[in-house]
Each structure stands twice: as structure tokens, then as C-alpha cells.
Amino acid sequence: MKKKYFVLGYFGYYSNKLDGQTIKTRSLYKLLNDNIGSVDYFDTEILKKSKFNFIKLIFKLSVSRRLVYLPAQNNLKSFFPIVYFLSRVFRFKIHYFVVGGWLVNFLESNNFLISKLEKISMIYVETERMKRELKEKYNITNTVIIPNFRDNVQLSIEPNVNAKLKLVFMSRIHANKGIDMIIDFAKSTKLDVTIDFYGQISSEIEDYFLASVSEINIINYCGSLQPSEINSTLNKYDLLLLPTKFYTEGLPGAIVDAYFAGIPVIVTKWLHADEFVIHRQTGFIIPFENGDQEFHNYVEEIDMNRQLLSQLKINSLKESLKYTSEATWSVIEKTLNQ
Fold first, then answer.
1. SS3 for 26-40, per residue?
2. Which GO molecular function annotations are given, in alphabetical order (predicted)?
3. Which pLDDT belongs to residue 6?
4. Residue 3's pLDDT is what?
5. Residue 1: what pLDDT?
6. Which superfamily, per CATH, for 3-146?
7. Is 50 exposed, middle or buried, given 0-12, 13-18 or 19+ CB atoms closer than 10 A?
8. Is the pTM of the predicted complex or chain greater than 0.85?
9. Is residue 179 within 8 Å of 243, Cβ to Cβ?
10. Which of 1, 32, 28 is nearest to 337 (CA)?
11. Beta bridge pairs of residue 167
12. Rounded distance, CA 87 to CA 79, Å?
């Protein structure tokens, strides 16, 4: 008997990798299990461990009716054509959930995928802009918007403002997440603030980052958080810092987590920033390049104006209601049987 739903993606269980890709994959799998029950899955991380795992995956695909697919770029380029071919052989439907905001640019140099993508059941994109540009550039219209979401998060009831401003970074500690801007700020500021970092450290930045933590008194590295720890940790802070250098990011999960914790954000103006951060209402948007002075100015303004900070926190908490699992499922359940 064919199983109705099957989730294929990078779960990262083998290495315990925690990033936007693995968290969204795990969250979507849990959402499906909670709402329809008994959903099978396969973690693409184990494909390289044994040839037997590939055979196991083919078997799982052959007995599925609907595939929920969350590929990263390499997987989409090299493996999606195989998955698409198998979908024709075994007659299962493909529901592709995009992680991030890169798909439109990616298809410019991988246009052989377009004819296949436009024929699958549905593509779930994170942003309005991506949905619009897929139609305008490639005539791909089988799309629906599903931004990042969080499952069963307890909302902060009354956002707290600390006497001493507490800043936080929570994401993968990677050069392209704007770590240098935060560290340069920490070196130069005269404000009485603290900056705590949470996240797995990328190897290429590890020496620089840990040396900075040792040298700068206001910086602390607090390790990695499990998803269940995020909300209760973040709501102790006042402002989340995410001056990303990834221009084609979709909706960073850290922003969603910040909103659920009732804290505003400072972000660079990446491609989709205006869709998810309301300037001076749920946070601040600084120039994508050379925004160091604006970064400093907004932190100083928040430190001087706690009434503004309180209002931003309230606004952020209200904004989180757009990203609940209930709101997400209300959209998915209308399309998943197509």
C-alpha cells in the first residue's frame, strides 16, 4: 500500500547540524505529523554514508503518493531531475518547499530545471517577490506563499525591557551573517550594553570570532540552542542583530524567533527585507553595504529611548501571529492534495 506523504530533505540528524535548512525541514515534518499523522521521511545527509541508503530512498519514493521536498541548491540541481523522473515512473506528486530566497537567481544559470518545476504539483515560496518573479521571468505559476514559521511557541505575554541593553545574535556564526559589523561595533561603542552570540561556529571564522570574544568585554559566546530553548532564551533580550550579507535570503528563521520572543531586530536591507521587517515598527533596516554608522545610531537610539523599545517589542509580538504553525497549516492543507 502506498504511503500518502513522504518528506525528503536535509534533516541534519546525523551531524546535529542546526541551520535554516535543517530547522525548516524538521519543523515542516512535525507540522505534517501533527496534522495528518504517520508521515515517513528520509534525511539526505545519509546518502553519502552508504550506497544502500540510495536504494532505500528509491523504495520509499516508489511507495509514496505525495512527496514533500526541501532541497538545497546542489540537491535541486543534481538530484531533482532524478526525483522528477521517478515521479513520472511511480506516479507520485511533488510539493517543493523552497528554503530561502535564492530560487529566481538560481534558475538563470540552471534553466533546464524550469520545464520540470512548472509541471510539479506546487512550489511553496517564502516571499511575495519570489512568487511574482517566478511568474514574470519563467512563467512558473504553480506557486503559493508559505513564509518561515514556528510550531507551538509560547508567546511572551509582556515584553520585558532590561535596565542594561541586552543585544543578541542567534544564527549560524558565519562571515556572511555580518559578524564583522557586530564585532566592529562592540570594539568602538561607548554604550553600556552586552552582546551575546548563539549558534554553531563556521570553521573559516572560528579563530577570528573566538579571539574577539576573548578580547572584547561586552561580547559573550553562549553556545548553540536547541529549538525548544530558543523562545525562553531570546525573550531575555532587547534587540536581535542580523546584519546579513546573504542578499538572496528568504525569511531568516532568527527574525521569526525574535518576533515570537517579543524583540525587534536590526537587519541589513537584503532582497526581501521590506516584506518581513517594518522599519521603526518591528525593527530597523540599515543599508546592505556600508551600514555601520546606521547600525551604531539605531542601537544608541534604542538605548536612549526605552519607550520606543517598549513599543517595538509590542509590535514584534503582534507580528509573530503571521508565522504560527496554525496560519501555515491553513494554507498548506488547501494545496497538499493537489
1. HHHHHHHHHHHCCCE
2. transferase activity
3. 96
4. 63
5. 47
6. Glycogen Phosphorylase B; (3.40.50.2000)
7. exposed
8. yes
9. no
10. 32
11. 195, 239
12. 12
Alpha-carbon gap, residue 157 to 178, rounded angstroms: 31
Cell matching residue 23: 530547522
Distance of CA 68 to the CA centre of its chain: 17
Q: In the structure grid, which three cell numbers stand for residue 326, read together?
A: 496554525
Residue 208 neighbours by CB distance under 10 Å: 13
Give one word for 223, left, alpha or beta, with left for phi > 0 and alpha for psi -120 to 50: left
Where does the chain hold its CATH 3.40.50.2000 domain(s)? 3-146, 165-322
Residue 29 is placed in which grid cell?
515534518
Q: Which cell numbers in the block locate residue 215?
A: 578580547
β-partners of residue 144 are 124
What residues are paired with 143 via a beta bridge?
Answer: 123
Q: Mean pLDDT of residues grouped by 10 in the chain (338 residues)?
A: 83 84 92 91 90 93 96 95 97 96 96 98 96 98 93 64 92 95 97 97 96 97 92 94 94 94 97 96 98 98 96 95 92 88
> What pLDDT is attached to residue 153?
65
Domain 165-322, classified CATH 3.30.830.10, yes or no? no
What is the rounded distance in angstroms from the CA atom of residue 89 to the CA atom of residue 85? Answer: 7
